[in-house]
Amino acid sequence: MGGIVAAALATAIGVNGASASSGDDGWWSPDDGRVMPEYVDYPNEYGKLRVLNADGAFSTRDHAFFTALGTNGRACVTCHQPSDGMSLSAKTAQRRWELTNGKDPLFAAIDGSNCPSLPQEEKASHSLLLERGLFRIPMRWPPRDASGKAIEPEFSIEVVSDPTGCNLDPVYGLNSDNPTVSVFRRPRPAANLRYVMQIPQGVFPYDMVFFNDRTLLPRDPETGEFVPMQLMSDGRVNTLKEQAVDAGVHHLQVMGKKLTKKQLDQIESFERQVYAAQVYHKLGGDLTSPDAPPGLSPNALRDGAAGRLGNNPINKVFGSFQSWANQPEKPNETPEEKEIREFRASAARGADIFWKRRFMIRDVGMYNDKGLGNPIKRSCGSGCHNTLLMGMDLAPGYMDLGLNNFPWQNVRTDLPLFKITCKDNAKPQSYLGRVIYSHDPGRALVTGRCGDVGASITQQMRGLAARAPFFMNGSSMDLREMVDFYDRRFNIGYTESEKVDLVNFMSTL
Amino acid sequence: MLKHAPLAIALLSCGSAAWAETNDRINFITCPIARDMGNDGELCFFVERDGVAIGVQSAGFGGPQLLHPLLVEGNLVEGETSCGGLRMQGTVSVLPELDRNCDTIVPHDGKSKGRISGVFFTGGPEQRALAEDLMRRAETDHRVTALPAVYVPPSPPPPAPPFTTQTLGINFAFGSDKTPGNSTGDLIRLAQYAIASKARSVTIVGQAASTLLDNGEFVREDESLARTRAQKAADILLGLGVPKNVVKVSWKEGLVEGKGDHDWRNRRIDVVLQP
Question: Which of A84, A140, A196, A311 could share a disulfide with A386, CB 3.0–4.6 Å?
Fold first, then answer.
């Protein structure tokens, strides 16, 4: 139904733009064949998110991103929904379960359930997707290098706790004939990828060199050009086409069928021109208006420069919020006008806290130990979220923030727990040592390195209002929980009003 | 025992001071201590030796880290106080094993001054001009704050004749094969020179070393680092397009034995390019 409404609206207004109403769940099913407008707006609890196609409207009929390419009935769009900032929220997954009684391809056994061996008709078998928006990511153990050769890992891995049953499963588990570690992760937004795929600019030699270990960045096998390592949380592949191939195998189950060059080109072209960001805020108003902060809305992303550091006193990462900071009280101001004015001032304070409020960042593996020192004093914006208009780490920033590793992680009895024991001749994880308890070893499942245990890439901050839960393991159900995690992890000491300001700020991105 | 400790304490109480030149060598392992530099500053690090504070600079090998012991190698020099302590010249290396005793942060002493680092403090004249222009325009048009404020210099022209022999020496932190600071950029420029000059050969020789500590003990690197340092540099050159038959990699067997005098200089690679 959502598709019909959006398509009808798109047709009615000449496919320039469309708006999904509050009664329209906005779901895009594979093979809908409808028109993707130049822009389409979706309501969320904070206002509206806009998906903007810089190349204009197009038909999704036979478009590779919107077509079920594999055997399980899914398309890329299944898990990268426009309404959710091209990611997928747990709420959307729940709605989809209720609407389809769990029959939607979204809940495919391969990764849309806690383990393929579980009874798929039972809701409990899909609890991680329904409650936290998590998909199962099966990682071969030991990991393989680019040529497919097994890497000798620097550590052993044991299953301590296995609530999903998958890591001890005789078919899918660590001790199966195909040893596999199952971890559970959120889908990253398939939008604003022009920024994600841009090599850092103006920071020689880090336009060629991986900051962490001073090796050369990987190259795009097709073009031979360097590529950043920002795309996936663990960097297991680094180009849009490689990601599409990987997703085809693991999420769409193409079962030996290869995606064609035309399909891969189509997916990449779409992903490089699509933007998603909040465009309207219930209290902030129209985020495209001239007096709104200039970095907001997908228009700013479409027009902005990619691959630039924004951690400077001019950019302040997302541009100045000064226009909202001190809006004068109008004569005879209505309660609604007062609420708007106060919200804008709060969001501006939040932007200021994000940019200015420094705290001691310490014991972050692969961050403090890459030459910065432990601790260092930074703010959110001057530290790890430094990329202009995007808020990811330009470096690129693999790091163990503490999302998955003890003792910093949120308590998660729903996730598997692994014991990592580093070999004596391996360099230990800088702040956790040689024995580490982790819900997801992250980058280390790709490299086999002890120092990488728990590390993942900082991700973009756009469209947050539409795509909870947050963090790669869905640890924070909402923006407030995300602020609380940082406050606890780094002992920042935000006041209650500062936390509210930060949430208001992030809800406009 | 530091010869100048009493003098140091006396002068510290007066704030910054100029020091008589000293040849005091300092080679020891200890816990770093972090000092908060207040609201306007970062953190700095110092170590204590016989009750005397010595500011420790990274010298390009990366900042000290709490939870890890620090190998300090250098000598005391004259100059203003550093992080509230004596000033040293040399380098420090973070040792890999965890030591949870190394976990002290002291509050701002009200004297040590720092500043918040940032791209505009280190940028060149083009960077400052761009920043000043945007700051001026932002006063009347806040939209410019979403424009990139980091200057992207044009690509330098490729190296041109006459081509001459090029040499490059790179030192490493203790136990590390990571090229520090700007030396990765130096390697990249060398690769570009090799390609432009159609170099006949680029030889890379790696070595690892031990350090003689003040207490007479040695700390020794893993001997295999001599090879991995050289090979990692070669990988960068090859990855940037220097022909494989041009690059010759070798390494010194064993460790270069420390003498307690700038031993960190023995942890190195030497690259020689013949056009």
Answer: A311
B184 and A205 within 8 Å at the Cβ level: the answer is yes
pLDDT tens digits for range A314-339: 999 999 999 999 899 999 999 999 99
Q: Is A316 left (phi over 0), alpha (psi -120 to 50) or beta?
A: left
Interchain proximity B152–A311, CB inside 8 Å: no
| Token code pair at residue B119 | 């791209």
The distance of A359 to chain B (nearest Cα, Å) reads 10
pLDDT at position B7, please? Answer: 29
3-class secondary-structure state, position B12 = helix
- Nearest-CA distance A330 → chain B (Å): 22
CB pair distance less than 8 Å for A202 and B153: yes
Is there a contact between A431 and B236 if contact means CB atoms under 8 Å apart? Answer: no
pTM beyond 0.90, yes or no: yes
Q: Which tokens in the block code for residue A100? A: 């389809």
Distances (CA, A) of A303 to A19, A57, A299, B140, B148: 22, 18, 6, 20, 11
Burial of B1 (0-12, 13-18, 19+ CB in 10 A): exposed
Rounded Cα–Cα distance for residues A42 and A26 (Å): 7
Taking alpha carbons only, the member of B266, B181, B186, B272 closest to residue B226 is B266
**Average pLDDT rounded to a whole number, residues A466-494:** 97
Amino acid in position A42: Y
A435: distance to nearest CA of chain B, Å?
Answer: 12
The whole-angstrom separation of Cα A504 and Cα A487 is 16
Out of A309, A358, A428, name the one closest to residue B150 (CB).
A309
What is the pLDDT of chain B when averaged over all its residues? 88
Q: Tell me the pLDDT band of B128, cut-offs 50, 70 and 90.
A: confident
Residue with tokens 């209290």: A283
- Closest partner residue to A389 among B67, B146, B184, by Cβ? B146
Residue A138 one-letter amino acid: P
Q: Where are the alpha helices (DSSP H) in A165-303?
A: 193-196, 240-250, 261-273, 297-303
Q: What is the DSSP string of A105-144?
A: GGG-HHHHSS-TTS-TTSGGGGHHHHHH--EEEEEESS-B
Q: Give tens-digit pLDDT for A80-98.
A: 999 999 999 999 999 999 9
Which value does ipTM take for this structure?
Answer: 0.91
Residue A142: is the preceding peptide bond cis (ω within 30°)? yes
Q: Which of B184, B195, B231, B269 to mutate to test the interface with A (most CBs of A within 10 A)?
A: B184
Phi, psi of A442 (to 5 degrees): 60, -130
CA A19/CA A30 separation, integer angstroms: 20
Confidence (pLDDT) at A300? 98
Q: What is the pLDDT of residues B69-87, one digit of tens each?
A: 999 999 999 888 889 999 9
